[in-house]
Amino acid sequence: MSGADVASGVLPLTRLNPWYPGQMGVPGTDTETGLRLSATGAIFYVDPNYPGASDQRDGTNPTDPLRTIQAAVDRCESYRNDVIIVGMNAGYGDSPGTPYPIPIVESVLLNKHGVRLMGVSPSSFGVVWFPATAATFCLTVTGCDCAVEGFGFAAGMGGGDGIYGEWGGGAFGDNLTIRHCLFHGTVDTAIQLEFVWYADIHHNAFWNCSEFGVFVNPMGSGIAYGRIHNNEFYTGAAMHALDLQGATECIISDNRLFNADAAAGAASTDEGIVTTGGQANMVCNNWLSCLLPVLPAGAPGDYDDFNTASGTDAWVNNHLMDGDAITNPT
Question: Cis omega (within 30 of 0) on the bond before 99?
Fold first, then answer.
């Protein structure tokens, strides 16, 4: 400080590190880790493999993590910019298993709005997640404006499902983003959507799921204004990749679909992209392992067998094994 500053009465600002007294008996509440320096938002850490992980903790300290994702969701507040970070595990079947052998085994309800749920893993599989019981979803989302990323969904020997974006009873899963996840093997339905608007599903992989990749139940309510793009679908069996019956004004683009039956010219009826019951969808620039339609009667595994459009859709420049399709499939 200069003599002039002293003479003018200007004093330096005193800068002290914030101090958080925490809550007595709750480990982790006295740390600055995470977004405690932000005006809003908190980071919650989940890691069932961490020694002493417990849902009795605050969860904002990575060295005092929660054991379950549901406990983290319960601590979130809607539209506070909360983030849930889930630690890696070696739950993939061929991994050595140690020192992080415990996968996520939960059926979680994400009912807070504006939450980002992310798995942190160096692998392409992601953080391994199984449902709590057979024939249930790993994750049901009824909160608006949520994002899910970085998980590898599996179902074990008993079957099970991945993510359900749900509407019902005043709960909406609108504006749901699902990205950088993998769904494989014994997963029955990877993603199911019920009356969800503005979903953005991108850069996911669907490998040999038992029934559906992305599914809209024709007995329920359709989806609208969705974007489903840059995903990979691979099946040697009868997985229905994009069964989007009732979809309206959605953009379905830049996806890659391989179906062993269609590629071999065998029957693969509606195992590709289906938008019947909806309207005004743009389906463009997808890569499909089928042949151009055999006119006038069609053939097993061809474009018209593999896909079915709504009458008001626009299917533009989808790439098949022997050329580009420039018409809507029938």
Answer: yes
What residues pair up with 216 in beta bridges, in sequence order? 244
Nearest to 146 by CA among 173, 170, 108, 126: 173
Say if residues 153 and 163 touch (Cβ distance below 8 Å): yes
Residue with tokens 């990575």: 62
Which residue type, as a one-letter code, is found at position 34? G
3-state secondary structure the chain: CCHHHHHCCCCCCCCCCCCCCCCCCCCCCCCCCCCCCCCCCCEEEECCCCCCCCCCCCCCCCCCCECCHHHHHHHCCCCCCCEEEECCCCCCCCCCCCCCCCCEECCEEECCCCCEEEECCCCCCCEEEECCCCCCEEEEECCCCCEEECEEECCCCCCEEEEEECCECCECCCCCEEECCEEECCECEEEEECCCECCEEECCEEECCCCEEEEECCCCCCCECCEEECCEEEECCCCEEEEECCCECCEEECCEEEEHHHHCCCCCCCCCEECCCCECCEEECCEECCECCCCCCCCCCEHHHHCECCCCCEEECEEECCEEECCCCC
> pLDDT tens, position by position, for the chain (330 residues)?
455 544 555 555 444 445 555 666 666 666 555 444 446 789 999 999 999 999 999 999 999 999 999 999 999 999 999 999 999 999 988 889 888 999 999 999 999 999 999 999 999 999 999 999 988 999 999 999 999 999 999 877 568 999 999 987 778 899 999 999 999 988 999 999 999 999 999 999 999 999 999 999 999 999 999 999 999 999 987 899 999 999 999 999 999 999 999 999 999 999 999 999 999 999 999 999 999 998 887 899 999 999 999 999 999 999 999 999 999 999
| Contact between 207 and 176 (Cβ < 8 Å) | no
**281 near 253, Cβ under 8 Å?**
no
Amino acid at 130: F
